[in-house]
Amino acid sequence: MTFIPFEIMHNLLLGLKPISRLIQRYHRTGINSESEKVEAVFKMYSRFDSPRGKDVLEIGPGQTLEVLKTALAAGAASCTAVDVLRYVPEHQTKSKQIAYIIYDGRRLPFNAGRFDCIWSHTAFEHVRNPAITVAECFRVLRTGGRLVALIDLGDHSQYRMHPPQPLNLFDCLRYPEWLWKLMKWNRSSYTNRLRKSDWIKLFTESGFVIEHQESVVSHVIAEALPSLPYLHRYAHEDAVTHVITLWLKKPRA
Ligand SMILES: C[S@@+](CC[C@H](N)C(=O)[O-])C[C@H]1O[C@@H](n2cnc3c(N)ncnc32)[C@H](O)[C@@H]1O
Fold first, then answer.
1. What is the C-alpha separation between 153 and 160, in angstroms, rounded?
2. For ligand 1, atom 6, which residue shows the shortest CA distance?
3. To bridge 180 with a disulfide, which of 115, 135, 167, 175 should be the other Cys (CB 3.0-4.6 Å)?
4. CATH code for the domain in which residue 208 is found
């Protein structure tokens, strides 16, 4: 059960830098450097295209630079990670031979055509300016380069529930945009709530070509759909899709 005034207070408190820095120390960002997950995510990234000899950029690695470390071991020419929050202390990034760069979430701090591969795991749903981030990825990718992104479209607050409440998977879609931002903008559980079709439109309109895509659907939501009126404004696929993985290419002109 969501208590909206509490959510708003929580969000406003996290707008205060000293508090957000303190809380950030206790974040768990996902893969959390667990070796089995690192291996699975690396396999997903390199499924159609080996990083050997390539310049690789990861968007939003959180605490986990081990995926890029695996890419270096597999022969990547260079590995760069870019995030809006510093989750990894500087001395650790140096010893891992990975360029770890913190930026403001808008213009990526790289020249055009700098990378052969861009990888991202459960980060695109958190970006505050998705159209800018997608256009920036296109700009910094070389012609012929590839972007692989796994995007989790669920309400991330629900993942902390014990026991899990699969019927609440898309609770984030219950709120108007202004209220959602007031509840979440400063928090790690903020998601931009773009649906599958929004992402596909954004990537293709930016110039990417989809080479392969996979989706995970919530069958619980699909079954309950007639009784979930806040999902009725979406096309069926958008209302039931939980996770998308896209393998994209920047085509040659
Ligand atoms: C859920 S965590 C995922 C971390 C990691 N990829 C994993 O799977 O464990 C989302 C990450 O995206 C980062 N992020 C949010 N907005 C971003 C942006 N505009 N550019 C780059 N990273 C961003 C967050 O700071 C966080 O590290």
1. 15
2. 61
3. 175
4. 3.40.50.150
Residue ranges around ligand 1 (CB below 6 Å): 29-31, 59-62, 64, 82-85, 87, 105, 121-123, 126-127, 133
Q: Block means of pLDDT (10 residues each) for the chain, length 253 residues?
A: 90 90 79 90 97 98 95 97 92 83 97 98 98 98 98 93 90 97 95 98 98 98 98 98 98 87
- State how many domains the chain has: 1
Tokens encoding 10: 């929580």
For residues 63 and 28, give the distance between their C-alpha atoms in angstroms, rounded to a whole number: 8
DSSP 198-212: HHHHHHHHTT-EEEE
Report d(CA 162, CA 6) in Å as an integer.
20
Domain span including residue 161: 4-249
Residue having the nearest C-alpha atom to atom 22 of ligand 1: 60
> What is the dihedral angle through the alpha carbons of 203, 88, 184, 37, rounded to the nearest 10 degrees?
60
Measured in whole angstroms, the distance separating CA 195 from the mean position of its chain's CA atoms is 13
